[in-house]
Design a protein that fits this description.
Strand content: under 5%
Structural class: mainly alpha
Oligomer: single chain
Number of helices: 4
Order of helices and strands: HHHH
Radius of gyration: 23 Å
Shape: elongated
Mean pLDDT: 88
Distance between the termini: 90 Å
Low-confidence stretches: none
Helix content: over 70%
Length: 108
């Protein structure tokens, strides 16, 4: 039995789709959770800068501290460290906000 050109094309497309799916790297679920937390934080807490810029700066800080080029390729251990870095950034920003509030209060 001979295949038609259309059938050959459909089979080739199915094989290509299967191979493309195997080459896709899966993103760490823990990172997806943390990434959502970072996005929510940036949307809620960015004041002087747009939230996407703030999010990018947090991602850049995580990349530099972990010495990685692709943030979506993190291991579980790296996600734990990334969470610590994010918590540190949040704490430093909170301290800065408190300091600014104190300075503004003194001026009044």
């Amino acid at each position: 039995m001979e295949l038609t050109e259309k059938e050959k094309h459909e089979i080739a497309q199915m094989v290509a789709n299967i191979l493309a799916g195997k080459n896709k790297k899966k993103i760490n679920h823990s990172w997806l959770t943390l990434r959502k937390e970072i996005e929510d934080y940036c949307k809620a807490d960015s004041k002087a800068v747009r939230w996407p810029m703030m999010q990018t700066k947090i991602y850049d800080t995580i990349r530099v501290c972990l010495n990685i080029s692709r943030i979506d390729d993190m291991s579980n251990e790296q996600v734990i460290r990334a969470r610590s870095i994010f918590e540190f950034i949040k704490e430093e920003r909170r301290k800065n906000d408190e300091q600014l509030t104190i300075l503004q209060f003194r001026r009044e």
